[in-house]
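User: Sequence in, structure out. Go.
Assistant: Echoing your sequence, followed by the structure tokens.
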Amino acid sequence: MTVDSKTNILVIGGGKMGGGMIRAWINAGVLDPAQITVSDPDQSVRTDLAALGASAVADPGSAPPADIVVVAVKPQILDAVLAPHHAVLSDRLVISIAAGVKLSALRQICESATWVRVMPNQPGIVGQGASGIYADDPDARTVARVDALMKPIGDSIWVDREELMHAVTGLSGSGPAFVAVFIEALEDAGVRAGLPRVSARRLALQTVKGSAEQISSLEWDPSDLKDAVTSPGGTTIAGIRALEKAG
């Protein structure tokens, strides 16, 4: 799935998520670099993304006209960044990845834009993201265009009620931090038991990755994998009991 070769994209904000999306599109061949313009006030960000072949400007108002605008700035500066650039957004498909900013607030910035909310997560910068998407009654063309842009980022789901974006934020938006804490705990436990740090990390990472892949590939419930590993009176069920006792 690709975006039409005549479609131009403006990304406002070239930081971790905005820049990560640009790299994913280029690497997957979804967009030619010449179709992409990024706006960011940081010269180093502009230099890095321009090296990929994208155009880079300091201000959204300096960007050439775009068919789709992706807003990848922090929620607390959203109004300040976008308010002076109503014309950049007007009558465009605008995808906002600003966490917690509702469509009603986005429409106050530009009523004529077709707004879509996306909640991506950090693994999206390596093409392994888990994202939630919401728009009010989107037409088939909007859905297709958004899906084409999100596919290189990872897996995405459309939710049918905007309030469910809160659940997406807590689950997959914050989830990588929770998983990172768990991986770190596994690694530390391995070191405590005598493994070298590099070996413990390697085993911890592959254990988490492999477990997720097994559940997904075999279409198991998580409990199926738990039951497959535990044996009566064994160390695994003792460990699960310890986890449960500690909350």
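User: And one key feature?
Assistant: The first strand starts at residue 9 and ends at 12.
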